[in-house]
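Hi Y.,

Following your request, here is the sequence exactly as I used it, all 138 residues.
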Amino acid sequence: MKKDDCIFCKLANGEIPTATLYEDNDFRVILDLGPASKGHALILPKEHYDNLYELDDETASKVLVLAKKMITRMTKALGCDGYNLVQNNGEAAGQTVHHFHLHLIPRYKDDQVGLGWNMGKLTDEDKEEILTKFHETI
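Below is the corresponding structure, written out as tokens. Let me know if you'd prefer a different format.
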């Protein structure tokens, strides 16, 4: 269901003009107005979901299939060297708009797009704790 106060619901449903790359009954793919790189796009479901946790399995499956189709076509169109798929859930993870969306970010050699992190080390203690807690959630 669409939320009246959600800007991404309005974008996904054509209430606000966008640079639309693709549209079907479930999704609209638009160019991001604040791109990390040339060709940065967003997959927006037309129904409102705050984040990945709320997506039903069918919609979640369709998102990845659509992402594959889009980056395949966009790689040919842009001549980019690779792609990042970025999806943030919750403010701590960098989510600023609470409507599920998937970033499709073309990567170019030496493009200076900052998506990295400082690699840590998986300790034996952390590994055991995570595995134990994860398996307790079944």
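Helices lie at 7-12, 57-78, 124-136.

Thanks again,
Q.
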